[in-house]
Amino acid sequence: xxxxxxxxxxxxxxxxxxxxxxxxxxxxxxxxxxxxxxxxxxxxxxxxxxxxxxxxxxxxxxxxxxxxxxxxxxxxxxxxxxxxxxxxxxxxxxxxxxxxxxxxxxxxxxxxxxxxxxxxxxxxxxxxx
Length: 129
Fold this sequence. Notes:
By secondary structure, this protein is α+β, with helices and mostly antiparallel strands. The protein has one domain: GTP cyclohydrolase I, C-terminal domain/NADPH-dependent 7-cyano-7-deazaguanine reductase, N-terminal domain (GTP Cyclohydrolase I, domain 2). Helix content is 19%, strand content 38%.
């Protein structure tokens, strides 16, 4: 397993561009550093997106996420930066990143950041009996 991280997010063509479908990816081992103390912050990231022309390649996503291990970042800033980078790489119809940070000083932080393409409208879910 390579120990060097990288920031490039690779993509591949959406195999079903004519269909709205949701991709859900759970990243349970996100780590960055507190910019004030330098101590590690741990989070679970939940990524959900409706692809348009591209999908994110998972190994590159893993290596991209690893690149934050030695970076100082406030929770709000890192969640929004990850979303911005993913949106720039994939160009989704919709994307939501939920970052659930572990307890620190008795406080839990959850940051939810979203992107919606201007012309995209969510399809109502079918309610099954």
